[in-house]
Amino acid sequence: MDLVLPPLDLPPRVTDRAFARLREICEATGADKALRVAVEGGGCSGFQYDIKLDDPAADDLVLEKDGLKVLVDQVSLPFLTNAVIDFSEELIGARFVIENPNATASCGCGTSFSI
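Predicted structure:
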């Protein structure tokens, strides 16, 4: 009999590529800000990601590398369990993307999803 363990609920992970792009943005703008990744109600699939530069709040989860910070608020955290925050450059444009295993469906723009 094989022992099968349930998947662990882990905080989101940020790729090196996402941290590198955040560094480029901070250097270009001169802003000493963190990248906030939040989940809000709305969008064409029920929820949408809100990604912006922001300052840390007291109850944020702070994911840090080399002095760069990515923030996730406590309300958004359950929606981003085991997710990967990445940066993608494609012909149609460059943007931060969320690979979210909790999403059961998403729209073509990649910023809206359902659970």
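Summary: Residues 13-114 form a domain with the Hypothetical Protein Aq_1857; Chain: A; fold (CATH 2.60.300.12).
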